Predict the 3D structure of the following.
Amino acid sequence: MHNHNHAAGTSHLAAAGTRPLKMALFIITGIMVAEVIGGIVSNSLALLGDAGHMFVDALALALSLAAMTMAQKPASRTRTFGYHRMEILAALANGITIALVSVYIFYEAYHRLLEPPEVKAPMMITVAVVGLVGNLAAVFLLQRGSLVSLNMRSALWHVIGDTVSSVGVIGAAIIIALTGWTLADPVIAVAIGAIILIGAVRLIRESVHILAEAVPKNVDVDKVVQVIKNTGGVDDVHDIHIWTITSGIHAMSAHLVIADQRVSQCSDVIDSINHNLSEQFQISHTALQLECETCPSGFVCEIEKPKNNHNHNGDAPLPRSRSIAEH
């Protein structure tokens, strides 16, 4: 028996997130054009580096927007989970591009440290201030959606990187204007690259965690097992798997050993389990296989029964599932 109610909720989240993404994309593109012109005129690596980051961010926001739009497409016979994973793939791609941008900034900064160029500070300040205002507006637009969507969070990290870059460029311009120390430009650029790289690593790690179908970070498997065991009519649980389909959609499959009872009573057990899992762990999709006393031998599984089959206190060891190779 199974339960799933993820499609409507995710479609709603995707639809709600597209408008802020579109507005943020428009802002970032405008700032990028201004910074390219300002960077060329002022000969500032920090400004050009920020413009380059803006260009990548514009592509990343467009990719996030496309992924969210595609995620709204319904499931089909060949894609039974729909296109929800497109958001996670987009987030992973964004994380990789952010990391590459930071590496490029390090490369350019190294050459500028060897041969510091002349930098026009007033132009740097003017363009960077405009960029900072635009970036703060984009952060405001994306912040709410980032709380529920990894894809939106990846877009937000891009814009946060831009915001930090703008602050860094302003700082470098002020130092150059007051002291004439042109090395401030590549030094600030390196600091910007380091901050961007930290965000990229976190984003890549979280995306890989989901794609590897690891247990969601906010879910404790032992607590899930205990909640299921405490449900009336359930004697034991084994072969449990918990993973994330996309941001906000956790799924679980498990084998339940239940007392001998009517089918109608089994439905009540399933409904109770699904309610508790949804309320306590945000697990919205479940596939539960019901068994009585023993699991069929052969290629499916084998239950090693604890000494007390009706222990609901979690003291008995969990049953161990065996793969085909173990039989």
Observations:
- The first helix runs from residue 6 to 42.
- The domain at 221-326 is CATH 3.30.70.1350 (Alpha-Beta Plaits).
- Residues 142 and 156 are 6 Å apart (CA to CA).
